Amino acid sequence: MGLFSGYSGVKVIKEGLFGQKGWKPVWRDPAPKADYDVVIIGGGGHGLSTAYYLAKEHGITNVAVLEKGYIGGGNVGRNTTIVRANYMLPGNSEFYSHSLKLWEGMEQDLNYNTMMSQRGVMMLCHSDGQRDYFARRGNSMVNQGDDAELLTPEQVRAEAPMIDFDNVRFPIYGGLMHRRGGTARHDAVAWGYARGADTRGVDLIQNCEVTGIDIEGGVVRGVQTTRGAIRAKKVAIVVAGRSSQVAAMAGMRLPIESHVLQAFVSEGLKPIMPGVISFGMGHFYISQSDKGGLVFGGDLDFYSSYAARGNLPMKEHVMDAAMTLMPSIGKAKVLRSWGGIMDMSPDGSPIIDKTDTDGLFLNCGWCYGGFKAVPGSGFSYAHLIATGQHHKPAARYRLDRFRTGAGLMDEEGTGSQHNLH
Ligand SMILES: Cc1cc2nc3c(=O)[nH]c(=O)nc-3n(C[C@H](O)[C@H](O)[C@H](O)COP(=O)(O)OP(=O)(O)OC[C@H]3O[C@@H](n4cnc5c(N)ncnc54)[C@H](O)[C@@H]3O)c2cc1C
Fold this sequence. Notes:
- 28% of the residues lie in helices and 26% in strands.
- With 421 residues, the chain is α/β, with parallel strands linked by helices.
- The strands form three sheets. Strands 1, 2, 8, 9, 10, 11, 17 and 18 form an eight-stranded mixed sheet that branches.
- The longest helix has 19 residues, at 92-110.
- The protein is globular, with a radius of gyration of 22 Å.
């Protein structure tokens, strides 16, 4: 931590000796003002990074972030923390490439330890066809300027000896390694952006639920909240799993379904996972946190829900996949699991766009890949809000692609079924 951040080794020792009473809140707790230039609905990773970049890149600081709960209580604090830029299709490729570059400079930029760890993301393949696809995907990544290595089974074994290589049903044909990918501490990312935005003058207003959006003659005028009406020249929706509900306040019907995704953490173990590994037969991914817990997850629960908790059939499915990939995991105890509400779009790719209402903006559809998008999404959304122009890396994230069918980015090749992306 830097000299002026209020953190230092001396401070830690002093507080340890004198009862930890001298720490100050990291951001203010202001009452909402009557009027703002920009109101951001949603204090998740994307809302906070949008506020930060509005202030830092565009000098717009008369901004409020309205959060119905507390900062970090949504998906930004519930995900499995995987960061990567290993997409194949134009649109996603350049966006995630830009986002990963922002991750690489984030700690210096925010002067905050977000524990960004580029420990590598390895996707396993289990057939010739899958290996061919990974070769193409790797080439796209390299063409985009990112890193990719196609690994042989022997190279995979050297990287991850704990994997079951003798499984006749799911043989390991190799892997696609993306060494600049990895993990970060999710809630520290929220706190870092929150502090950065607050110190630049943004009001972070917690326990403030938006209940209505005021529109007059096709122009947005402000919002109704549980803490009163707030006027605003521009309103930016960025509420992840609640996107359909909040957009409905402006009379919009979005092509979004909300689904539950679960995550699991084991008891702390000695280091056994080198980085992030994803199993190519079924949807299963695993890494190890710095505290030693194995962090893993799988598919959505497969039906729409606003319940931020999961169900037993998917737990069983995830445990099956874990045991198939690395049977030794059966000795570890699961300590806890939880769910988050995902805003699933029909092509599995997000939306950063204006709406038909003047001054009203929309950012949603991150599915279960939005943590790694936190810096890129905030940067591009702030650019759109401030300038009215689409930021180049996010220029294809248009809402009307679902109306016209042109420009869809179906990375998974699963068609327009929300729960399969
Ligand atoms: C189990 C799980 C694992 C995941 N793993 C990964 C991963 O490994 N890598 C990855 O890239 N992504 C992952 N994701 C996805 C990622 O977490 C999300 O895409 C991303 O966090 C969503 O954006 P956000 O941070 O802004 O959302 P959130 O943190 O959910 O922020 C939205 C905020 O809006 C607030 N809000 C909603 N309605 C209102 C209202 N009416 N008024 C005011 N505020 C409101 C909510 O309270 C919430 O705080 C995972 C998600 C889950 C649940």
